[in-house]
Here is the input.
Amino acid sequence: MPREYSQAGVDYTKIEPFKQAMKAIGKRTLKFPNRRGVYIDEEAGDVFEYRGPHQPLWHMIQESLGNKNWIAEWMYQHAGTGRTYYEGIGIDTALMAVVDVLRRGALPVAYTDEVAAGDSDWFKDESRAQTLAESFYQACEMCGMALLGGESPALHYLVKAELPVKSAPSLSGSVTSIIAPPERLITGRELQVGDHIIGVTSSGLHANGISLVIKRALTLKDQFLHLLPNGQTLGEEALIPTRSYVALVEALLEAGIHIHALLPGTGDGVGKIAFDKRPLTYRIRRWVEVPPLFQFMRELGVALEDCLKTFNWGIGFYIFVPEEGVEQILEIGQKVGYELCYLGEVEEGERCVVFEPEKITLPPPGE
Here is the structure.
């Protein structure tokens, strides 16, 4: 290893064990896409082909995790439990991309990751590296996709963690997905007045609104070790892994449900329901139980509109369908293990979300 290069912040002897751990995990995932007719060349490891009966469409997207693993690093440094708190971070990272391909009626088949740290030393913690690698495996298993490769750079001059965390990598990845048959493509253009809105519950924070949670947590005496009424620390509650909606969407597609639009409950929170640019009003008549962490944010003084426009507020995925499809979707969702709730309807009017449970009207995304 070139001595001066390692002194400049890049030491491959420290990074290589992490790379090998990820490669070993990747080999265990290669058969996961087979059920969708996609087969990986096991010798090459990063070449794949479709052997199904259709002429498929392919979809690809890249997303980053954002700041969530900063909380994991804080907990690793301060909780004193011996846990790395990275058990769900690979799941969170992968699902940030996966949830976006689902909105097109696409199903994931391949994933590549990037773990970019500010120094080579971050990679040499074997316990944390193995935990993160295993959580990527879990993401691939639950989504039916293969981990084909990745990148693990030490970006000494670019990635700097905010103190008191000593070091935290930037995590991102790209997912390739398949639409087969191509008639399953969902563009959202069929969305119309009279459509019913179905919500699928989240597992908690997922990975949106993390910066606000960090800002508020650091004002508390115990910070992320602050106990919530349910007995969990704030840090533990924030790190609950993102819920996967792949099995639900796959079941709906297999059943031939006529879906007008699918929408991940990510950036802009409940306000994102007004995703379509047309002048449509989205009237939300009922809601699910709000997760403990979001209730706590309100107790800390975060304004209701800020909460609703930042957090998923308990719904992680939305389905827009004609009225005649509602009951069948609720039934299928329950069969495959999801909690679904009829929320409201799409109406003519100004582009906004009328959130009747809190008697508030939310502007559309970005406003």
About this structure: The chain has a mean pLDDT of 95.
